[in-house]
Amino acid sequence: MNYTGIIIGAAVFLIIGICHPIVIKLEYHLGRNSWWIMFAAGLVLAAVSLFVNQSMLSTIFGAASFSCFWGIGEIFSQEKRVAKGWFPENPRRHAYYEGLRKKMFTSSGKDNA
Q1: How far apart are alpha carbons 51 and 73 in whole angstroms?
Q2: What is the pLDDT of residues 14-66, one digit of tens each?
Q3: Alpha carbons 34 and 75: distance in angstroms, whole number
Q4: Reported confidence tier of residue 75, pLDDT bands at 50, 70, 90
């Protein structure tokens, strides 16, 4: 029996599960300008994936790399979710979110995001 697919699938599941709270924390503490952290992590993991000789580990590092790249877009989406009130905002950045809300919502109440 070959367990490689199951192991990779479980690893990807855990990686995605770990990336979600990381995105939330990065946006909360550093805002959307923290995207570069995910980009740098993605580049490092991609490089590691290229140089790891073991096929399964290389695949897992590659999946982690692209999960970080996906997280870049999620940071921007998280900012919008916070502005809509779906997630808590950092009180120190309240004025920023108020300005964002004004941009996102027109006077008719429609969502422009």
Answers
A1: 27
A2: 999 999 999 999 999 999 999 999 999 999 999 999 999 999 999 999 999 99
A3: 8
A4: very high
Range of the domain at 33: 22-104
Q: Is residue 109 part of a domain?
A: no
Structure confidence at residue 104 (pLDDT): 85
Sign of CA dihedral 47, 48, 51, 52: negative
Q: What is the number of domains present in the chain? A: 1
Tell me whether residue 96 is in a domain: yes
Helix, strand or coil, per DSSP, at residue 94:
helix
Task: Give residue 111's pLDDT.
Answer: 57
Q: How many CA atoms lie within 13 A of 103 on its CB side?
A: 10
**pTM, full prediction:** 0.85
Q: 17 lies in a domain?
A: no
Instruction: Name the residue with tokens 């073991």.
Output: 54
Give the Cα separation of 78 and 27 in Å (integer): 7
